[in-house]
Amino acid sequence: MTNADTLAPPADAPAAPRWSPVLAVALATFTVVSSEMMPVGLLTPMSHSLVVSDGTTGLSLTITGLIAAVLSPLTPVLVGLRDRRTVLIAFMLLLGAANAVTALAPNFAVLAAGRVLLGVAMGIVWGLAGSLGPRLAEGPRIALAMTLIFSGVSIASVLGVPLGTYLAALLDWRAAFWALTLLGLASAAVLAATLPALPVTERGRLGGLADALRNPGVAAGTAITAFVVLGHFAGYTYVRPVLEADAGLTSGVIASCLLVYGLAGVAGNFTLGPLSGRRPKTAVTIALTGVTLAAVLLPYATGGLVTVLLALVVWGASYGGVSVSTQTWVRTADPSRIESSAAVWAGVFNASIALGSFAGGLVVDRAGNHAVLFTAAGLAGAGLLLTLLTRPGS
């Protein structure tokens, strides 16, 4: 049955697409992930300012992730026949407004309201971004387009979170969210200037989501995604307290460590992204192996800066390839339902962020820093086992 999931370009579409629209979407994903993840680098100052615990501040990630998790898989249905270009621009503007609310928050309740708005924007943007590679490129260019789009995720760790951490150290944590407000507006402007019209001719339907999950490869890919993202965010959300309390690092050194982590993430994205286009199972296996090992080893690596950096490099390089490799797994499993399968994947991804950060908060508040890292390793390891037992194709 033909539906909006096929998203076939019109017959007269140019054979050699420009890369500027792909880079514009990459900027949008960078802005979304920077906005979502900024509390990781600012957890301690935000907690002190709002007079709440680190675990409570970590709920800012949970709130955003839950809202996005609900909206992402419903995006094809919610936006209907609206041009995807128009939708992306509108919700990047909403993202800018959400960060402004966060920057102004006098207490956790207002902060939570801003993060709800961010979750709405993030859910819709993520619900569409994963399906845009095949619309903006074709043939062998698709793998590179997907790699570039998802590079925004890893580059956010390199530039977004560390620069926000540095800005907070120079001014305060609110300045980081004002910067994200401006970046959201700039991203919307770039999308408006470069993105071509992205119409659809048939309305998305709820049944398309169920159809996507009936595919064994899609079901396996989304389950693998859930395990690794749960594990990653259970541990990484609270990596700053680990580095402060266990490794005894200062704020400036922690920012540098997060920068190194992010650089490794970019390398991982651009290494595993092209590989996933050819061998998605191999790419996913490498990514999950690295995340599992890094989470296990970090508690034993806090005795020195060099060992901390080694563990973070492994973690960053591995997780940097998770988004593009797991999404490629899902797309490869069911290429006839690109938008629905991408929306389901995005929903699972965001739900796992929310649940992972929430579970990590419970563990770190009750059992401590080492326990939360071992929990992260166990979840990622479960995803690795599932990867070894399944495959994208039927």
Oligomer: single chain
Main sheet overview: none
N-to-C order of helices and strands: HHHHHHHHHHHHHHHHHH
Shape: globular
Task: Evaluate the radius of gyration.
Answer: 19 Å
Number of domains: 1
Unreliable spans are 1-17
- The CATH architecture category equals Up-down Bundle
Average pLDDT score: 85
CATH topology: Growth Hormone, Chain: A
Count of extended strands: 0
Tally of individual helices:
18
Proportion of β residues?
A: under 5%
Supply the CATH class. Mainly Alpha
Say which CATH homologous superfamily is assigned: MFS general substrate transporter like domains
Tell me the helix content. over 70%
Distance N to C terminus: 19 Å
Name the structural class.
mainly alpha
Keywords:
single chain; 394 residues; mainly alpha; Growth Hormone, Chain: A; 79% helix; disordered N terminus
